[in-house]
Write a structure and sequence with these properties.
Blueprint (H helix, E strand, L loop, with lengths): L43 E6 L6 H12 L5 E8 L1 H6 L3 H9 L3 E7 L8 H24 L4
Parallel strand pairs: 1-2, 2-3
Helix pairs in contact: 3-4
Length: 145
């Protein structure tokens, strides 16, 4: 029996020869490389609070359940219904606390013709507060210089 090492063909056997085809194709034209545009992909998270709510606790629980496993995203879209706006207290603060680190942008959708547009202003104000509060310990731990 002939000894062979792993990866070698057994004695007397060899791979079939590969037939080569003459290359009649002309060489590609020389010039600047062609740049193919790549579409930007953004992750958008949607939170739907348009259901029927009777208490603030229900709104808070639903917001928590829908954002429990959320990841970093580009945009967070929060849809608020009349019931959530009517019974929810400090919705802007609650929305800001969920997304001030996870989202680059937050969109708050309210029903048309309502007086609830202040929720977006409240959320923006609280996002600034939370971001500044988060930055304080980070700035203290940095080495000077």
């Amino acid at each position: 029996m002939t000894e062979r090492r792993p990866g070698e063909w057994p004695a007397g056997l060899s791979p079939a020869p590969v037939a080569t085809v003459p290359d009649d194709t002309p060489p590609p034209p020389q010039g600047p490389p062609i740049e193919v545009p790549v579409a930007e992909v953004r992750l958008v998270v949607t939170v739907d609070l348009t259901g029927r709510y009777d208490t603030h606790a229900q709104v808070s629980r639903d917001l928590h359940e829908q954002t429990r496993y959320s990841t970093d995203c580009h945009t967070a879209v929060v849809r608020l219904g009349e019931d959530a706006l009517r019974v929810g207290m400090s919705l802007g603060a609650a929305i800001a606390s969920r997304f001030f680190l996870a989202a680059r942008a937050v969109e708050i959708h309210v029903p048309a013709g309502t007086r609830w547009a202040y929720v977006a202003t409240e959320a923006q104000q609280y996002m600034r507060y939370y971001a500044a509060d988060h930055a304080q310990p980070l700035n203290r731990t940095r080495t000077p210089g």
